[in-house]
Structure formats: C-alpha cells, structure tokens
C-alpha cells in the first residue's frame, strides 16, 4: 500500500487522530501537509517524525474555518509538492452542553469548524482532487453522528451532516476517478477524550464489544487504505471504526 508520490493534506494533523494519519501516510512515502491552528511546536515535531521515517512533510498554519487561511494552505501545498491527491478533513472541535444550556455561539462555533472547515477545505482543494489520478476526499466523522450523544447536539449534528456531504461529493467525483468517503471513529484515546471523567469512560468502554477505546493507529490504518489506490471501488461510504458499538 505505497503512497509514494501522493500528496496528502490532513487538517488538524499536529496532534491526535490527524497526527496519526499524517505519520501513517508519511511512512508509506506520501508528501504530507501538516495543518495546525495553534499547535505549532507539535506540527514541527510531526514533520520531523515523518522525515525521520524517510517521508517528506511541511507545515501549514490555517484555521479551517477561515477561507483565506485555507487558501494559504493550498499555496503552501502547491509550492512544496504541487496539487493535492488526498484531502483528509480531520480538524474538529466539541463544545458540549445539555441542549437547554447550549448557547447559539457554541452551536455556531462547532458548525463553523466541523462543517464550515470541511466546506472551505473541500472547495479549495476540489479541483486538485478532481484532477488527480485516483484523488481521495476522506472526512473524519464520528460514531456520535450516527448514534447521537448526551450533551453533544451541536457536534452530533455536524458529524452526521458530513455523511450527506460525502455522499453528494462522491456522486460528483464518480464522473472521474476520484472518491469521497467518511470514516466514523468510535471513542479514541486523544486529547478530545482526555477530559472525560474516569467513571464516564468506564461506562463508555463497557458499551464497546471490543472492550477498549480506539488508538489513533486504529483510525489511521483505515484512512491509509482509503487514501491508497487500492480502495478505488469504494465511494460514498461511511466506514465505522468503533470496536463494534453498532452491534
Ligand atoms: P483533538 O485531539 O482534540 O485534536 C483536534 C485537532 O483539530 C487538533 O489538531 C487541532 O489543531 C485541530 N483543529 C481544531 N480546530 C481547528 C481549526 N479551526 N482549524 C484547524 N485545525 C483545527 O481531536 P481528535 O480526537 O484527534 O479528533 C480528530 C477528529 O476526529 C475530529 O474531527 C473529531 O471530531 C474526530 N473524532 C474524534 C473521536 C475521539 O474520540 N477522539 C471520535 C470520533 C471522531 P490545533 O491543536 O493546532 O489547534
């Protein structure tokens, strides 16, 4: 599953799931654009890790919710490696509250980053992916987009919105050789779940048939397959990577 010569842009890839995806793709020979919003030091560490593994990477600072920033990221990508073959919309945030306590600002911010960021990045890199040989759009959704989750009306709405978007772009791309898919991780050991109290985590794990949280490598391995040319007959799908939470 070589990624040699393929240029991959991964949003929010200085840490967490995005970092795992970036390192997996870089180790397989991809040219990687490490996007960060605030984690500059970690972004440079990610570049070093990929270079140590024999790959190539650059950093691009951009808030995915800001179209001008995303345009800057495209320029960084084109200057370093040329057009992108693969875009992974991974950057995401939560702002949890029971619905009656949730402010409109908390709703809007989650939509701006999770859905608005996907819009901005996909639109900016659309021509690259469309024109690529076996271009790939991969959106990182969540099991919460399917099942809902207490206190996450904003996040669950954004994550399920990714499904319809992905299927629609998949239909548009189907007239060429590019594909669009979603990956829907279950609860994954990153900073995003770091703040969840232990007793809540224990309850979550007791509901997972495989009886553990996902590690970033579990998600990255699936993204790497979808990013490769081997996945060319899969499009418009939502691939669950959740330890059997739907069973
Ligand atoms: P995380 O550890 O909280 O990291 C979030 C990442 O998103 C960081 O790299 C952050 O960059 C970036 N980011 C946030 N806002 C951004 C913005 N406006 N512009 C650019 N980058 C931004 O989260 P994670 O757990 O790795 O989650 C990654 C993705 O997987 C998210 O879409 C999340 O919804 C999804 N997911 C996570 C889980 C889970 O249990 N962890 C489960 C299902 C789905 P900076 O640090 O530079 O700000």
UniProtKB/TrEMBL annotation:
The keyword Transcription regulation does not apply. InterPro entries: KR_dom, NAD(P)-bd_dom_sf, Sc_DH/Rdtase_CS, SDR, SDR_fam. Transmembrane segments: none annotated. It comes from the Archaea. It holds the Pfam family adh_short_C2. Residues 6-196 form the Ketoreductase domain. Keywords: Oxidoreductase. Belongs to the short-chain dehydrogenases/reductases (SDR) family. This is Ketoreductase domain-containing protein. It comes from Natronococcus occultus SP4.
């Amino acid at each position: 599953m070589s990624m040699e010569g393929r240029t991959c842009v991964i949003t929010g890839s200085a840490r967490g799931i995005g970092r795992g995806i970036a390192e997996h793709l870089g180790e397989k020979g991809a040219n990687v654009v490490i996007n960060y919003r605030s984690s500059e030091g970690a972004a440079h560490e990610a570049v070093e890790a990929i270079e140590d593994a024999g790959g190539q990477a650059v950093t691009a600072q951009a808030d995915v919710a800001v179209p001008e920033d995303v345009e800057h990221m495209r320029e960084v990508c084109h200057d370093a490696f040329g057009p992108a073959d693969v875009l992974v919309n991974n950057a995401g945030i939560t702002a949890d509250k029971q619905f009656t306590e949730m402010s409109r600002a908390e709703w809007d911010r989650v939509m701006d980053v999770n859905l608005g960021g996907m819009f901005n990045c996909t639109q900016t890199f659309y021509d690259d992916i469309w024109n690529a040989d076996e271009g790939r759009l991969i959106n990182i959704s969540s099991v919460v987009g399917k099942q809902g989750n207490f206190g996450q009306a904003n996040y669950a709405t954004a994550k399920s919105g990714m499904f319809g978007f992905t299927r629609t772009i998949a239909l548009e791309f189907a007239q060429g050789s590019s594909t669009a898919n979603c990956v829907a991780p279950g609860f994954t050991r990153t900073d995003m779940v770091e703040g969840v109290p232990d007793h809540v985590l224990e309850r979550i794990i007791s509901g997972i048939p495989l009886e553990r949280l996902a590690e970033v490598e579990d998600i990255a391995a699936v993204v790497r397959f979808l990013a490769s040319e081997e996945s060319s007959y899969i499009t418009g799908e939502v691939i669950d990577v959740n330890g059997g939470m739907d069973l």
